[in-house]
Amino acid sequence: MTGNVPFSDMLVYLDGSEGSMSAAMYAVLLAKGTGSRLHALYCINTKALGDLVKARIFINQEKAEYMDDMGKDARRHIRHIEKLAHSKGVEVTGVIVDGSPSAEVLRYIKDNHVDLLVLGSVNMIRSRREELTSESDRMLRTSPCPVLVARDDESIWQMFEELD
Fold it and tell me: CATH code for 9-162?
């Protein structure tokens, strides 16, 4: 805990969606305002990829190509938050991992003593199956620390642009 702020280490989960980019900007704003350490994690979902191979939707060669593309996307998103944070004078620790996103986020929180998880908008659950498979929903339910869900993308972008 930092001063009067109930958290000192926050983690923002990136998945490449517009919502996660808004969450990244909001996390930068929070880190700037509170002096908290900022971590950003992008997880290449190898569990889902393995399920696609098992279901014969992908063949192994396609899996390798997909993994390469996902690695490039992950590096691009981590570089993006590093630039966003740098533009506001905030340090960020960017990490790319492979596995099941919810499990990897949980592991990172525990291993790094994270005390706030920042997520982008959690999608509307339309079916029982989606509820069981939604990674963000699982993170929201199982996180051992408080979770902040950044929802209003437009105002976040405006606040971010106005901050020096």
Answer: 3.40.50.620
